[in-house]
Amino acid sequence: MASWWRVFPRAARRYPWPTNVLLYAGLFSAGDALQQRLRGGPADWSQTRRVATLAITFHGNFNYVWLRLLERALPGRAPRTVLAKVLCDQTVGGPIVLSAFYVGATQLWTVSKGLLFCPSHFFMLTNFSLVPVHWRTAYSGLCGFLWATFLCFSQQSGDGTVKSVFIFFLRKEASDRPPEE
Q1: Which residue, of 39, 118, 140, 157, has the greatest Cβ tally within 10 A?
Q2: Which residues does 17 contact at the CB level (< 8 Å), separation at least 6?
């Protein structure tokens, strides 16, 4: 196990694109698997395969290229530069990635609400200010794991919004309580 931790950073430096894309896809897919576990239902591996396919064919590659483009266009970690990168990411990159996830699954209003409540503003602030360039796609994958868990869960449990997640857990909690005497 210890040797894996030495090999992985070398692979990321030598082959950054495939390493980051595979890590991103693995984390994004794990997010879907986790949300299925949280819902308590049987594992739907065909759904996880679809999420993995989307992550490896689009999301991971898009994030890799997009983050490199942003770094070239706005190099550095100065606060003003970081805020400019986050603004660009949230106004251009975010809608593209979120729309790709929801293609054919929901309507535009749900996508718009997802953008408003998306924690990626914070994730991208930390990504651009704290994470080295060669790890940014992998960090996005870690954040994508959290976000995919939420997106898949909310889409499977309701209308793809934060409200649907809360309603699911409130109903579950109510059904788990013993009946009053």
Answers
A1: 140
A2: 61, 64
pLDDT at 81: 94
Q: For residue 68, what pLDDT is reported?
A: 92
Token couple for 120:
């990626």
The DSSP symbol for 119 reads T
Do residues 147 and 176 make contact, with C-beta atoms less than 8 angstroms apart? Answer: no
Ranges under pLDDT 50 in the chain? 104-117
The answer to whether the beta carbons of residues 45 and 84 sit under 8 Å apart is: no
Count CB atoms within 10 A of the CB of residue 134: 14
Domain boundaries in the chain?
A: 2-176
**Whole-model pTM above 0.70?**
no
Other beta carbons within 10 Å of 155? 21
